[in-house]
Structures are given as structure tokens and as C-alpha cells.
């Protein structure tokens, strides 16, 4: 059974359609990334999933045992509020000190436990937020641009950590990121959102799809292909989206498929 099912979800705010006809499913153990341009509805979709926002239409079904750990895009901290990282980790639910220390160590943030929250750098704060989200051992970890502020090396370690978390907890991971080439390599499935779901599937196939290229350009495709190729040692990346690897949802693409079928029919006929 899926952890989470969204069926034809729409969100309208102040007369603006922010999400339209969004359907998706999430299962335990998978890492799924939502990509899309600025203002395409990614954070709204995450807020809907964590229950901070109600859909205007459609159906959202959560598994009875679903528990969500959420790492927000940003956290406003009052600089006058005295609050150490250790204290912050114990809110709102109490945890054993040993569990807090283990979570911070696992997020490479053990040296921050006595520091003031308001004095952390952006990258340090993200590590602490991730550690706190994992304390609850969620069945779904939701990350909204959680690698913001991390340098190149810390970002690579961050995604290795997410992969370990997925294995250890068996949870699903749903994340949003603009670091397309890095985040896509770390994902099992990519969902390309632009108010509605344009296409979804295996990262390399999505990056090679026409919908992706019309949103992000050829350069983004090549950056992803190069990165995947270099990291995996695979043979030459396939720039032609395979029909198995990517599900598209745009009308022009249906026309393209039709043309493809016609071409194949011609080839067979010839
Ligand atoms: N309460 C609201 N009322 C009206 N419009 C809103 C509201 N909340 C968000 N929007 C609009 O919805 C659109 C999607 O916003 P959202 O923050 O979900 O996008 P995003 O894909 O996460 O963007 P970014 O990549 O820039 O973080 C934006 O145009 C935003 O201005």
C-alpha cells in the first residue's frame, strides 16, 4: 500500500491556480525529487502533503501509519531568543540525550549541540533541522531545498546521508531542490512540476524529455547527463527519453508520441 496518494489535487489561492490536477503516489523506501521552475508550486505541494494546507479539490489519502519528518526551506529565528541546538532538538517532543547526540552525529553536526541556534550558519542550521526531523523516525521525510547553504562537499555528504537514512529507516524521501544535476543523481524518481505534473520517471530519462528541456534548457539536460555519467561510470548517457522510463503529461508530447508511432509504422511498412 502507498504511504500517500494524491488524486487530481488542485489548489487555488486568491483566485490563482497554484496546483492543477496533480496526481502522485509515494511508497516506502523510494527517494523522489520534485523539480520545477520558481513559482511552479513545489513548496505548496509539500505544504499540502505535510497537512499545513488543504486542497481546493481532489483527494489526498494518507496511510494510517504515516509519520512525517519535515525540513523547511527556511526557518525564521528570533535573534534575541536564547536557544541552544541541544534544547531545540528536545522540542516539541522530549527525547533521550543519547538519541539527540546520535541524530546530530549522524547529520555531521555533533559539534553544534551547545551553540546558539540564532548563531548558526545557513548550512549548519540545515544539518540541525534534518537531525531533528529524523529523531521522530518518520516513515516519510520531506525536504524543501534542505541542502540550501551547504557547500559542494557538504551537499554530496548530505545526499549520502539521505540514502543511508532511507536504508536504515526504510522511509520514503520526498524532496525539492534546484541543484538539478546533484539531486537527480540521488533520486529514484523525478517529478517535474509546473502547476501540473509535466512528466515523471527515472532521472536521466526525465532530463532527456522535451518537457524538461523546454523548462530548463538543453544545458540542464547535458549537466545532468554528464553528472550521472561521471558518477556512475555508465556508458554514454541516452539523451532520447525511453518510453518506459518517463511518463509525460503534456499534450504536445502526446502528439510527438503519435508521430513516433506513425514513423514506426512507416518503418515496419517499409
Ligand atoms: N497564499 C497565496 N496566495 C496567492 N498566491 C500564492 C500563495 N502562496 C503561494 N502563492 C503563489 O503560488 C505560486 C507557487 O508558489 P510556491 O512557493 O509553491 O512555488 P515554488 O515552486 O516552491 O517556488 P520557488 O522555487 O521559488 O521556491 C507562486 O506564484 C506564489 O506566488
From TrEMBL:
SMART domains: AAA. It holds the Pfam family ABC_tran. Keywords: ATP-binding, Cell membrane, Ion transport, Membrane, Nucleotide-binding, Translocase, Transport, Zinc, Zinc transport. It comes from the Bacteria. Transmembrane segments: none annotated. This is Zinc ABC transporter ATP-binding protein ZnuC. Residues 4-220 form the ABC transporter domain. Residues 233-263 have a biased composition (Basic and acidic residues). The keyword Iron does not apply. It comes from Kushneria konosiri.
Amino acid at each position: 500500500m502507498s504511504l500517500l496518494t494524491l488524486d487530481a489535487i488542485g489548489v487555488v489561492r486568491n483566485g490563482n491556480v497554484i496546483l492543477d490536477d496533480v496526481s502522485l503516489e509515494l511508497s516506502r523506501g523510494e527517494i523522489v525529487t520534485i523539480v520545477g521552475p520558481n513559482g511552479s508550486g513545489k513548496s505548496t505541494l509539500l505544504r499540502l502533503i505535510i497537512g499545513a494546507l488543504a486542497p481546493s479539490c481532489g483527494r489526498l489519502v494518507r496511510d494510517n501509519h504515516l509519520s512525517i519528518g519535515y525540513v523547511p526551506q527556511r526557518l525564521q529565528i528570533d535573534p534575541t531568543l536564547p536557544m541552544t541546538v541541544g534544547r531545540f532538538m528536545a522540542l516539541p517532543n522530549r527525547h533521550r540525550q543519547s538519541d539527540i547526540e546520535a541524530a546530530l552525529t549522524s547529520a555531521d553536526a555533533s559539534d553544534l549541540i551547545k551553540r546558539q541556534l540564532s548563531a548558526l550558519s545557513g548550512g549548519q542550521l540545515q544539518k540541525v533541522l534534518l537531525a531533528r526531523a529524523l529523531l521522530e523516525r518518520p516513515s516519510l521525510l520531506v525536504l524543501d531545498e534542505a541542502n540550501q547553504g551547504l557547500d559542494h562537499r557538504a551537499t554530496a555528504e548530505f545526499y549520502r546521508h539521505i540514502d543511508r537514512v532511507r536504508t536504515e529507516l526504510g522511509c520514503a524521501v520526498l524532496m525539492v531542490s534546484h541543484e538539478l544535476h546533484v539531486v537527480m543523481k540521488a533520486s529514484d524518481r523525478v517529478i517535474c512540476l509546473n502547476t501540473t505534473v509535466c512528466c515523471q520517471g527515472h532521472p536521466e530519462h526525465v532530463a532527456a524529455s522535451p518537457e524538461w528541456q523546454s523548462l530548463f534548457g538543453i544545458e540542464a539536460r547535458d549537466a545532468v547527463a554528464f553528472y550521472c555519467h561521471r558518477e556512475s561510470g555508465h556508458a554514454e548517457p541516452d539523451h532520447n527519453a525511453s518510453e518506459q522510463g518517463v511518463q509525460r503529461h503534456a499534450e504536445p508530447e502526446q502528439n510527438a508520441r503519435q508521430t513516433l508511432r506513425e514513423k514506426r509504422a512507416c518503418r515496419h511498412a517499409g
